[in-house]
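Retro notes, structure queue

What went well: the backlog is down to a handful. What didn't: a couple of records were mislabeled last round, so from now on we paste the full input next to the output in the thread. Example, using Xanthine phosphoribosyltransferase from Pontibacillus yanchengensis Y32:
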Amino acid sequence: MEELKKKIITEGKALNEEVLKVDAFLNHQIDPVLMKQIGEEFAERYRDAGITKIVTLESSGIAPSLMTGMELGVEVVVARKRKSLTLQEGLLSAEVYSFTKQEKSTICISSEFIHDTDCVLIIDDFLANGQAALGLMNLVEQTKATIEGIGVIIEKQFQHGGKNLRNKGVRVDALAQIERLEKGKVIFTDEEVHI
Ligand code: G4P
Ligand code: NA
Ligand code: NA
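Corresponding output:
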C-alpha cells in the first residue's frame, strides 16, 4: 500500500534493528485519512470473504479496525488486556507473551459478541513475533467462529510471526512488509533502501 509506505518513510523512525516507531500516525498521534485508506484496503481485500465481525486488540488496533468495519458494515470487537483476571461469566481469555516487553499478559473478550456462525477478520497494527495474533486466534477459536484471515498494517518479516501463521495455513494480509530495519533505515521487502 503506497500511501502507507510513504508515511512510514517520511514519518516513521527505525530506532534500531528491531523497532519501528510510528507514533506520528499510528501509535500515539493517529492520522484519520490514512486510517480511512487502510480501512478501504482491508475491506477491498476481504470484500468477498463474508466477514461478519472484526476482532482486534486494544489500543492501536482499534482505529484501523473501526475504519475497516465501517467499510465492510460490520461491528468491531476489541479484546481487552488485563494484568490479573478475576473470573467472570462468559469471559474468554488467552495468554499472550510479549517478547518486546518480556512479560505475559491476559487478553479477553466476552463470548456475548462473537458467535459460532461468525466469520471473523482479525486486525492488528504490528505483526512481529505473532504472539498477539495467536492470542486473538485462540480467543476466536473458543467461540467456534471461523477465522477468515489476519490483517496487519505493518509486518516485520524478520521476526517470523507472519511466516509461522502462513505455514499453519492462516491467511495473513500485511499492508506494508518490512524485510529489515537499521538505525534510521527501513528496508521494505523486495525494495530499495529508504533513509
Ligand atoms: P508480537 O505480538 O508480534 O509477538 O509482538 P510483541 O509482543 O513484540 O509486541 C508487543 C507490542 O509492541 C504490541 O503493541 C505490538 O503491536 C507492538 N510492536 C511490536 N513491534 C513493534 C514495532 O516495531 N514498532 C511499534 N511501534 N510497535 C511494535 P501493544 O503493546 O499491544 O500496544 P498498543 O496496541 O496499545 O499500541
Ligand atoms: Na503497538
Ligand atoms: Na498492537
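Agreed that this is the format going forward. Reviewer comment attached to the example: The chain has six helices and eleven strands.
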